[in-house]
Amino acid sequence: MTPITEVEGRRVALSNLEKVLYPATGFTKAELVHYYATSADVLLPHLRDRAVSFLRYPDGPEGQRFFTKNVPPGTPEWVTTAEVPRSQGPARMVVVQDLPSLVWAANLVTEFHTHQWLVQAPDEADRLVFDLDPGAPAHIVHCCEVALWLCERLARDGITAHPKTAGSKGLHVLAAVRGGSPDRASEYAKALAVEAERAMPRLVVHRMTRSLRPGKVFVDWSQNAARKTTATPYTLRARRTPLVSAPVTWEEVADCRTPAQLEFQAQDMAPRLRSLGDLMAGLLDPEAAAPLP
């Protein structure tokens, strides 16, 4: 029988809690649900009012993985959903607004991915994102060099940048913005990616072409498009170990000398949060949002 737990007055079914999802570390589904529940104070504000794409991996990262964008069958009626625009017509997606919805979604074994706009205003970009993806033999240390350049360049336009690990092999640089559409945000991000390539031609590439990327950092500006989603701050990732897409300080980025320095697993996050708080809190402050140039 599937156990039922009560979360803030909602009944949530939890299944197969003893299943080992990450064999390399023995990390179980119960630990995954616990991680999300205990990270809710910092995770939920980054999920709230944003349509969610789930990357599901019910048998662990080495099993089948698939994206769920539409509302999954069996979704409880108390989970918030919203109609969002799509190129092929509107679709209905989940919006994780509260702890019961977060625990329900965690039971599906998910990464959380969100758009750069709120469901109330899909035509207005409120976040800017650069996904720095290294092509081997480049790695995250090289991404740090590019991230520092982007931080300084964005600052010249009055935009405050916030870094986080991708939770895989690269870095994400995010910023709170206002006054532009997703198309405008994409145009601006592309222009900065091109500028970065010109400034660091041996290190940066702005085009997605695979043959151009070995040994370089691909500055992916395309995730600003209205239809695209990016891994949410604090989400677990479907990797060999329970890595987190973890916010980091600019000091940590500048001091990074080996990839291991910027690898954070689920068990690392509680002490980081106690000492650092939410390093991405600036993304949530409307007063901190800079106008898109």
TrEMBL record:
<keyword id="KW-0436">Ligase</keyword>
<dbReference type="Pfam" id="PF21686">
    <property type="entry name" value="LigD_Prim-Pol"/>
</dbReference>
<dbReference type="InterPro" id="IPR014145">
    <property type="entry name" value="LigD_pol_dom"/>
</dbReference>
<protein>
    <submittedName>
        <fullName>ATP-dependent DNA ligase</fullName>
    </submittedName>
</protein>
<dbReference type="GO" id="GO:0016874">
    <property type="term" value="F:ligase activity"/>
</dbReference>
<dbReference type="InterPro" id="IPR052171">
    <property type="entry name" value="NHEJ_LigD"/>
</dbReference>
<feature type="domain" description="DNA ligase D polymerase">
    <location>
        <begin position="28"/>
        <end position="279"/>
    </location>
</feature>
<dbReference type="InterPro" id="IPR033649">
    <property type="entry name" value="MtLigD_Pol-like"/>
</dbReference>
